[in-house]
Design a protein that fits this description.
The chain is α/β, with parallel strands linked by helices and about 475 residues long. Among the domains are: about 30 residues, no CATH class; about 270 residues, no CATH class. About 40% of the residues lie in helices and about 10% in strands. A 7-stranded mixed sheet has the order 1-7-6-5-4-3-2, with helices on both faces. Helix 12 links the parallel strand 4 and strand 5. Helix 2 packs parallel to helix 3 and helix 12 packs parallel to helix 13.
Length: about 475
């Protein structure tokens, strides 16, 4: 039989074996993704083999297809488990984070390590650091009392400092607990006008209300001590009085000794009473022009709420650590500021006359839930000192009537004789003094107030214009 008949269409019988071979290879090899399949190894050329060792066509096709579908062992990945890959990556990231240096927040204090001092060039940064360390190691009492070697003139110590009484004294302000520094003239006035009894007595209901309020605020913070204001103990809520509250004062009228370097603390009384300003004011236009003048404004109106204050209050909560001692330190500065303002006014209005000690006095009250301590503030010309003299201590549980009498007498004097003398002095200052003309009142310019002083200013301006032309 001819040989070409034996090999007719040899490919067809091998379809099924080839598929079987491929299925077998696929089952033995792991399934690889498209990116993980390596390049197949090319088959070895068959022309270099003998005829005896050359595989048959069936074996050649089968081996070729098997090699194509199943890569060799050297290209197989070592780990194809996604979970293990994730753990390995996480481990590498954790190791990288562990090698980073920790970052300190900007609010953290500087890290000072004795074993690793900062590298500085000779003389760089050493002097400021030394000064800071010396200032930290120095006691606070020495820092407040020292002279110009280490402190500035603008630094103001707190009133709670143990040495603040010495600072008051060195600036010419003295606290007189016994009232021994009250002059005979002032004592006569106090006995006749301030310490006198009043004909009208308080009702039992008003006294009981003040007592209950004092009991309720015994364990309260300082803000609740204000509840005593308006009761029969402290009847200061009046429509004819200008009240200010807890605002800083200008320090222009604060006593100051140039020989002593440390100034007094800026006044900031809890409550201060004076004369009305603004729409409710009873001053005339001319009087307001003097009060609002740039030369006088920071003295006549040291704070918001009134002008020429004459009664200041300092409230303290014993439950929060407050004390009458600290309240007196605060009231000493604000009371002296009130006296200084009135002395300035009378000195400007009557430069050639001696002032009476009574005309410039002011009052203060240091208040807790337990007691009210009243003081009169006055100036001694002979000693050149401001005094804060005690005129009475009143228990909130049994002295409501006596305290009520004195508080009402103080307002009666402030709104009567004191305000009348203040008006007379303001009238003496309008037209403005010659040394005030360089600084005119902005309020007066807005109102268009005309007077002798304004006419002279207008004449001078017209003459200057003619000369320049």
């Amino acid at each position: 039989m001819p040989s070409h008949i034996e090999c007719s269409r040899p490919q067809r019988p091998f379809k099924r074996p080839i598929k079987h071979s491929l299925d077998k290879s696929d089952s033995e090899c792991p399934h690889l993704s498209k990116r993980q399949q390596p390049i197949p190894t090319p088959p070895t050329p068959g022309h270099s083999l003998d005829k005896a060792t050359r595989p048959s066509s069936h074996q050649t096709v089968s081996s070729t297809r098997t090699e194509t579908s199943c890569p060799s062992k050297k290209y197989a990945p070592k780990d194809v488990n996604p979970a293990s890959n994730h753990k390995a990556k996480k481990r590498r990231i954790d190791d990288w984070f562990a090698g980073l240096l920790p970052i300190r927040a900007s609010s953290c204090p500087p890290r000072l390590l004795p074993s690793d001092p900062p590298s500085l060039s000779p003389g760089e940064g050493q002097r400021p650091l030394l000064e800071v360390l010396q200032g930290m190691s120095e006691p606070q009492t020495q820092r407040l009392g020292r002279g110009s070697t280490g402190s500035t003139r603008s630094s103001r110590p707190p009133t709670s400092h143990p040495d603040y009484r010495s600072i008051l004294r060195n600036n010419g302000v003295y606290i007189d607990h016994t009232g021994a520094k009250i002059s005979q003239e002032l004592q006569c006035f106090l006995d006749s006008d301030i310490l006198k009894e009043r004909s009208a007595s308080l009702s039992p209901q008003a006294i009981a209300e003040a007592l209950n309020t004092a009991v309720e605020i015994a364990d309260s913070p300082e803000g609740n001590i204000y509840d005593l204001v308006g009761t029969a103990l402290l009847p200061i809520k009046r429509s004819d009085v200008g009240r200010g509250r807890n605002t800083p004062w200008y320090t222009d009228g604060l006593p100051r000794k140039e020989a002593f370097d440390t100034p007094l603390a800026q006044p900031k009384p809890d409550v201060h009473c004076g004369y009305l300003t603004g729409q409710r004011s009873t001053w005339t236009v001319e009087e307001n022009a003097v009060i609002d003048h740039q030369q006088a404004r920071r003295i006549t109106q040291p704070a918001i709420g009134n002008c020429f204050p004459f009664f200041v209050f300092e409230m303290k909560s014993e439950a929060m650590g407050g004390s009458i001692w600290q309240a007196e330190n605060q009231a000493a500065g604000s009371g002296a500021c009130c006296v200084s303002a009135m002395r300035w006014l009378f000195r400007e209005a009557y430069p050639s006359e001696d002032q009476s000690v009574v005309d410039s006095i002011a009052f203060s009250a240091c208040v807790t839930h337990r007691e009210v301590v009243l003081h009169v503030h006055h100036y001694s010309v002979a000693e050149d000192r401001y005094y804060m003299s005690s005129i009475g201590t009143f228990q909130t549980m049994r002295d409501v009537q006596a305290c009520n009498n004195i508080v009402k007498n103080i307002f009666e004097h402030g709104l009567g004789t004191r305000q009348r003398k203040t008006r007379d002095a303001l009238k003496q200052l309008y037209p403005f003094p010659k040394h005030w003309r360089k600084t005119r009142s902005a309020r007066m310019m807005e109102l268009g107030v005309l007077g002798a002083d304004n006419e002279e200013v207008a004449t001078d301006r017209s003459k200057r214009t003619e000369y320049e032309s």
